Amino acid sequence: MKLDPDALTAARDRTLPDVLPAVGEPFRVLFCGINPGLYSAATGWHFARPGNRFWPALYLSGFTPRRLAPAEQDLLGGYGLGITNLVARATAGDRSSTRELPIGEIAASLRQEYQKSA
């Protein structure tokens, strides 16, 4: 899917919801990105930019039985997998959004939040 520059500009500061297994279902791994890119925010799918290595790596490392497309992200919960981001809002790059993040505090908060889901 090719997006025009206006669609990418409009995606700035949008957020993507986390992808998680259903409550009570097995939860094996949470993949945590830095923040969604504009392409992902414009499509509504994590790691959606063509050429992103996340989806091939997920399959090649044995987490999924086949290579999934970004549009199939909702299937991840059935494999006990989830996706979240340190920063929810989309930007053109990760440097501006993470420059002053208290990473230790964020990691502790994520751990606490997702242990409730497990």
Structure, described:
The chain has helices at 5-10, 38-43, 54-60, 95-98, 103-117, and strands spanning 29-33, 81-85. It is of the alpha+beta class and 118 residues long. The chain has a two-stranded parallel ribbon. The mean pLDDT is 85.
Distance from first to last alpha carbon: 35 Å
- By CATH, the topology is Uracil-DNA Glycosylase, subunit E
The overall number of domains is 1
Strand count:
2
Indicate the percent of residues in helices.
25-40%
**Rg (C-alpha, Å):** 15 Å
Uncertain segments: none
Percent of residues in beta strands: 5-15%
Topology record:
Layout: H1 5-10, E1 29-33, H2 38-43, H3 54-60, E2 81-85, H4 95-98, H5 103-117
Parallel strand pairs: 1-2
Spell out the key features of this protein.
two-stranded parallel ribbon; 32% helix; 5 helices; single chain; 2 strands; globular; 118 residues
Question: What's the gist of this structure?
Answer:
The chain has helices spanning 5-10, 38-43, 54-60, 95-98, 103-117, and strands at 29-33, 81-85. By secondary structure, it is of the alpha+beta class.
